[in-house]
Amino acid sequence: MKRTVGILIAALLFLALTPLALAQQASSLPPDRLVSLTHNAPNTGIMLPDRFDPWQNTYLLTVAHWVSRITFTPVTSSPTSQVTVNGQPVASGQKSQIINMTDKPQAVQILVSAYENGALTTQNAYTVYLQRRPSEYRTRVSAGYITQIDMKAGGVATISADLVTLTYQGNTNLSTFYNDTVYLYKYDTSPNCLFYYGTKQNPVRAADAQDFSNNYMMNGSNLYYIVYIENEIVAMLPYAAD
User: Fold this and answer.
1) Hey, which of 72, 107, 139, 167 would disulfide with 7, CB 3.0 to 4.6 Å?
2) Is residue 140 within 8 Å of 5, Cβ to Cβ?
3) CB burial class (10 A; 0-12, 13-18, 19+) of residue 233?
4) Which of 132, 130, 168 is nearest to 4 (CA)?
């Protein structure tokens, strides 16, 4: 059908690297960056952006309604760096403390602190916005060409788009698309909607709906992922076929 794929597409994982690749990437990163970050719900959770990038500091993770506990496993770029998850120390490559899920969204802060000769030099914070999908709601992921953005009161926008048909390659998150007919989509954004512009490979977090409206055509494309729960948009991200 022209409208979207459900959220339960096979696992969308954080970036998974071999030990050798991890070591090679770590050597090129500053000590206040993570090489990788994974979570314990890869089969039911969807992360946006869908791959961890050491230089991307904000993410949205939506998990199934029955998931009650989430943990994160960070891997640091330096053996002298220290990590905390919501203030609790976590060793590189080890699971964090359990984060109990409720039906209310929450933010998880992962702080990486770099030390030299025992003295703190730099710190870098990653934020994962975490939410559980209520069982009575349907979360969908669409893609389409934005045709119009109308700003409303309270930082909310109404986004109109011509949806495209996504085709996924087997049990992967790789996709292609085609746009054979005009299928118009028009919904309001959530007051807490996450906006990203730029490219699929290098998304840039927008401060708000107005900032997104000002910059969404920065790279010459108006083709975007549209993530929504029922009739409310909760995230916008650049899309391109794999």
Assistant:
1) 139
2) yes
3) buried
4) 168
> Which residue type, as a one-letter code, is found at position 139?
T
Provide the 8-state DSSP code for 110. E
**Tokens read off for 82:** 């220290």
* Amino acid (1-letter code) at residue 207: A
Cis bond leading into 79, ω under 30°? no
Tokens of 175: 């996709």
**Sheet strands side by side (includes 82-85):** 46-48, 58-63, 119-132, 106-116, 82-85, 88-90
Spatial separation of the C-alpha atoms in residues 131 and 137, rounded to whole Å: 13
How many Å apart are CA 63 and CA 44, to the nearest integer?
Answer: 6
In the block, residue with structure tokens 């496993």? 73
**In this structure, which topology does domain 9-132 adopt according to CATH?**
Immunoglobulin-like (2.60.40)
Give the separation between CA 99 and CA 83, rounded to whole angstroms: 16
Residues in the chain: 242
- Give residue limits of the domains in the chain: 9-132, 138-238
- DSSP H or E segment with residue 211: helix 209-215
pLDDT in tens, 46-85: 888 888 999 999 999 998 878 889 999 999 999 999 999 9
User: How would you class 197 by CB atoms within 10 Å of its CB: exposed for 0-12, middle for 13-18, buried for 19 or more?
Assistant: buried
Mean pLDDT of the region 84-95: 97
Which among 189, 186, 187, 183 has a CA at the least distance from the CA of 162?
A: 183
